[in-house]
Amino acid sequence: MPIVFPSGALAQAPAGPAVQAPVTARADETPGPQQKEPSRMDATAKDVLTPNVVRVTADMEVGAVAQLFGNEAITGAPVVDGEGRVVGVISQSDLLGHVLTPAPAGRPPTTVRDIMTPMAVTVEEETPLDEVAARMAQYGIHRVVVVDQAQRVRGIVTSMDLVLWVAAQA
User: Fold this and answer.
1) Which region among 8-22, 83-97, 139-153 has the lowest average model confidence (pLDDT)?
2) Could you say which of 7, 23, 57, 131 is the most buried, measured as most Cβ atoms within 10 Å of its Cβ?
3) Higher pLDDT, 26 or 67
4) What is the rounded CA–CA span in Å between residue 89 and residue 108?
5) How many of the other CB atoms lie within 10 Å of CB of 162?
């Protein structure tokens, strides 16, 4: 049974620094107070994560998850237990692999548990973005789940979130 299905979870722009006009001042003036945006050196997962994450549970039927992915325009989601802790991840690749493999006749409906990746690459909110990107590259994945110390979902960072953040820094 699903835990949370926020409608339009990815319809909002990814969180991250806004592009600001440069501040100029004469040499004999001190510019006023400015809000410091995270630089490439000190930005963390918290600066770019998407906070409203669609989550699924291991007992959901695969067909319902495929429908959910289509409705929410997403390509993957963390799988959580009854306490909201991450127990795995499911992606569109998992769904496609399932669809392309014929099931034996009379088999009960397939659940997320049957096809999910039973581990998720996770980071905490304060993880530097260079480390987030390095983990994505190391594992060949396009998303990491941002968790708190109890392994409950706080957000998600996708490779597109990183690309948009880098573009905003240019």
Assistant:
1) 8-22
2) 57
3) 67
4) 22
5) 22
Query: Which residue, 123, 146, 126, is CA-closest to 49?
Result: 146
The first and second tokens of residue 5, run together, are: 């299905």
Kindly list the structural domains of the chain, giving each domain's residue range(s) and its CATH number in brackets, ordered by start: 45-169 (3.10.580.10)
Chain position carrying tokens 């722009």: 13
pTM equals 0.72
140, 153 Cβ separation under 8 angstroms: no
* Predicted local confidence at residue 10, as pLDDT: 27
Which helix (H) or strand (E) element contains residue 167?
helix 159-169
Beta bridge partners of 117: 89
Report the alpha-carbon distance of residue 126 to residue 39 in Å, rounded: 14
